Amino acid sequence: MSFYTPGKVICNGDTFREMITKEELQSRIAELGDELSHDFEGKKPIFIGVLNGAFIFLADLMRYVTIPCEVDFLKLSSYGDAKVSSGEVTEKKKIDADIEGRHVILVEDIVDTGLSINYLLNLMNLHHPASVSVVTLLHKSQATRHDVKIDYIGFKIPTKFVLGYGLDFAQEGRNLAQVYVLDENSDEKD
Ligand code: IMP
Ligand code: MG
Fold first, then answer.
1. What is the average pLDDT across 118-122?
2. Which position has the higher pLDDT, 87 or 21?
3. Which ligand lies nearest to the CA atom of residue 163 in the structure?
């Protein structure tokens, strides 16, 4: 059972509380857009969104970028319906663009253990891009075990399961305009 109210969401029987408001998200993403526009001036970067989670963040971020740029998408295996990483990653959809000699900006919704982004960096480098940068909306820095360089971070968050603004729990909750965090103390279930 799932239902949404402002400030509190029940998703598949678990309770989530609002953690990052719509306004906080938009103002931080606008800052990231400014930074990227400045850093990639004259370079026509290609944004590569990691599906499904990054689609909302990428759509908002690109509208705050004021220089010419392109976009493409790839898809990795997901968490499935669990709240913890399976520890395995596979490519489910490849990019169509030729990224040789291009400035690539990988766009993630969240970096947790760092496994996915580590895999993606290796994958991108096989195609000889001019540069690869990483932007993630959320970073669970204490959970990141793989040694990856993340160039742009929206928000550092605790190692807790989050939902909304593209992030799902068993495919639900992506449409929420705010980020919610699992309330581990709540025993409300249905
Ligand atoms: P990593 O490979 O462990 O860094 O996990 C990265 C991927 O796991 C992200 O792109 C998300 O799709 C998913 N993920 C990690 N943490 C969460 C979470 O708290 N909620 C929903 N999805 C998550
Ligand atoms: Mg993802």
1. 94
2. 21
3. 1
Query: What's the CA-to-centroid distance between 52 and ligand 2, angstroms?
Result: 6
CA of 138 relative to ligand 1 center, distance in Å: 9
**Which residues, including other chains, have CB under 8 Å from residue 31's CB and lie 6 or more apart?**
none
Ligand 1: which atom is nearest the Cα of residue 85?
3
48 contacts 104 by C-beta, under 8 angstroms: yes
To the nearest 5 percent, what fractions of the chain are helix, strand and coil?
20, 35, 45
Work out the angle at residue 49's Cα, subtended by the Cα atoms of residues 32 and 101, and round it to the nearest 5 degrees. Answer: 90
The predicted model scores a pTM of 0.93
Query: Among 19, 122, 167, 180, which residue has the most ligand 1 atoms within 8 Å of its CB, making it the best to mutate?
Result: 167
